[in-house]
Specification:
With 121 residues, this protein is α+β, with helices and mostly antiparallel strands. Helices cover 44% and strands 12% of the residues. Strand 2 and strand 3 form a beta hairpin.
Length: 121
């Protein structure tokens, strides 16, 4: 099986919107082989069909969903393999180097948020 490539910045940017996360959640809860059309997704989310279409376009751009035309409607499926590749990417990003707890580099201290915390006037 070929390894699915996931561009980290694009992948996480696509998931950085609450509506898109909800779309992924709704599609993930569908039985295997089931899909939903834009109208059904819009009703479940309580937003307009054009808004759903725009969010789906972003998710299509990173390969998380794919469309299948059925008559007059387009139904969307979740690409579970691509979602799994993103999960594996996240695990690699946060994997402990060397696999041992003691070998992890210390986390940097938080940066001051404003001038008064940095000692500036």
């Amino acid at each position: 099986m070929d390894t699915i490539k996931v561009e980290p910045a694009l992948f996480f940017a696509a998931l950085g919107d609450p509506t898109r996360l909800r779309l992924i959640e709704i599609l993930a809860r569908q039985p295997s082989g089931s899909a939903l059309c834009v109208n059904a997704l819009a009703m479940r989310l309580g937003i307009s069909q054009p808004a759903v279409s725009q969010h789906l376009q972003v998710l299509r751009g990173v390969g998380l969903v794919y469309p299948v035309r059925r008559g007059m409607r387009v139904h969307y499926y979740l690409d579970r393999e691509r979602l799994l590749a993103g999960q594996q990417l996240l695990q690699r990003l946060f994997a402990e180097p060397g696999g041992a707890e003691g070998e992890r580099e210390p986390m940097p201290e938080a940066m001051p948020r404003d001038a008064s915390e940095r000692g500036e006037k």
